[in-house]
Design brief:
3-stranded antiparallel β-sheet
Length: 206
């Protein structure tokens, strides 16, 4: 029965992916924060409007997304949209959520959030929801006399200014995470030399 349910969940996920696309692009418009210690100077720019949940209009340009959240959207609104994909990992699906934007656009708040429960971001809500789902599945398997164990591992990596940091390791006091080295499997080819019957050009990259 467990195998049948997993196959059914996998088929439903495949159908959902076929309708929505394997890659989805969302847009969240950050509100203007008025409670900052320093005043915020907003330069004049084109007006912004959200005519539909899939469109953003900036000036005379229209941008289309799979989903658009306005300035009044909550952390829960964002999580509910991503929850099915996140829970699909329990049945063997692969899910990647990437926040992209300039400094100060709200990436950290959307992913991490704040200490208050209603302000928790995607990472906290995903962990809570995944463990709730795993506990429910464990109870279901126990009622069916199935001996099954789940393993969970977590890694939190930050890439900032070409530096890779492991945020779950504290290297020194006051430093955010431990800096890691990125291993490159691809080696940059050497420029041909006269000896190799070629002409070496300084600064040329292949």
């Amino acid at each position: 029965r467990l195998f049948v349910q997993q196959c059914l969940n996998g088929q439903l996920l495949a159908d959902l992916g076929a309708m929505q696309g394997t890659i989805q692009v969302f847009c969240r418009v950050r509100p203007v924060l008025l409670d900052l210690e320093e005043p915020v100077v907003v330069p004049p720019g084109p007006p912004l409007s959200i005519p539909s949940p899939q469109q953003v209009i900036v000036g005379d340009r229209t941008f289309a997304f799979d989903r658009v959240w306005g300035p009044d959207s909550s952390q829960l609104d964002v999580f509910r949209e991503l929850e099915p994909s996140i829970l699909s990992t329990i049945d063997g699906g692969d899910t990647c959520v990437m926040a992209y934007g300039p400094t100060g656009s709200g990436k950290t708040y959307t992913v991490q959030g704040a200490r208050l429960h209603q302000c928790h971001g995607l990472s906290y809500r995903s962990c809570f929801r995944l463990f709730e789902a795993l506990e429910a599945k464990k109870q279901q398997l126990r009622r069916q006399d199935c001996n099954f164990r789940f393993g969970v591992s977590v890694a939190m990596i930050e890439i900032y200014n070409d530096d890779l940091r492991d945020l779950l390791v504290v290297e020194t006091a006051g430093q955010r995470g431990a800096k890691r080295t990125v291993s490159r499997a691809f080696q940059k080819p050497q420029a041909p030399s006269v000896r190799d019957q070629g002409q070496a050009v300084a600064g040329l990259e292949l």
